[in-house]
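Problem: given the chain below (464 residues), write out its structure.
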Amino acid sequence: MVKSYRHPYIPNSDPEMKKIMLREIGIKKIDELYNDVPERFLLNRRLNLPNPVSEFKVKRHIESLLAKNRTCRDISIFLGAGCWPHYVPAVVENIVQRTELLTSYTPYQPEISQGMLQLLFEYQSMVCELTGMDVANSSLYGWASALGEAARMAMRLTGRQEILVPKIIHPERYATLETYIGPANMHARKVNYMKATGQLSLEDLEEKASSKTAAIYIENPSYLGFVETGGKEVAKIAHNNGALFIVGVNPISLGVLKPPRDYGADIVIGEGQPLGNHMNFGGPLLGVFACRGEMPMIRQMPGRIIGMTTTKSENRRGFCMVLQTREQHIRRQTATSNICTNESLCAAASAAYLALLGPKGLRELCEAIMLKSYYAMKRLSEIEGLRTPVFQTPHFQEFTVNFVNKRVRDVHEELLNNNVHGGKNISEEFHELGETALYCVTEIHSKTEIDFLADSLEKSLHRR
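Solution.
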């Protein structure tokens, strides 16, 4: 049991101070602050914590716990599914660790933050170049939040309250979408896919699209790694029904894939983590958001836009924050978005990463990723008891692996014991695919690692 302890740096640890604070806010005990929490959720006992110890002992204890972890530096990792293993050049790390950037937050007196504003302006410009769109904001929290914001933006622009999404969508992204659109009385409907290819069923899409549809959304590459080849047809169906066409992308793939604007996208969103950001235990992530340049769309786009201008007196170039008046910290309940900050440091890393690679470097990187991915698919497809890829269609860096006679969980545990982290088990997410996992191969994987994965899988499958 924890004894009463007065911490020298925590005023409310003093019992007398607690009494004064409770009296000031008009309650007798702290529990009254949680009256709205149902009784069944309350612990109703003290936490079984040890008494305070020295900083040195705490540090030793935490280090001993961390030593039990195995990271992607210790084992071969073939897990993607929304947060992918890529190499981050040392110069990118050096740039974002500069104190001007590392400690920066969204500037509330933006004009004095010219360096950060310029870097975010460069980030926006490169996002537009990648996606083919006219305007990009200076980032959101992640792909999932960008999807929610895009759906509500489409609702405001069209006055409609339905969004059509592919059945093959990242489940967590879909859950976030529902969280965003529910309070706005908006709803999502899933569109079926072709069993052989995974491609969105245009027939089902035609049937479901209507005058109630605010937007049609696709992911390209899809959650299961294949390239959606019917973008132009989907855009045509959306526009024929007066709806917007939203495309979600892994932006690193745009080194080889067509920019979404080329096949009719009105809004492009995505996950910027692959562009120079480490996985960091699954976050922070970086929401990419761009749209066409018509003013009604720009005014409804969430987040902040950095603009470039010139000074009035000396005609010097300067950067400024524009169109932030839609945000909740300014407009409160009349705001179009609750985004009043952004992932500035992650955006800075992406800007540095893209500037270092350039168009030629990005294309070469994507080609290397695809070559390694297809080599991995070929090696695994030669193993008896495996079927890969499940969908016969082009893939980028992720692909599905179906296990004919074994459970994914059992194979995964055996791989971990062999210092290999396999793909994500998607058997529960897509029951119709059976025992299936989603594997990821990027530029960090060597031929030796891929061959070792194949050998390990073969041994696991044929072990009696």
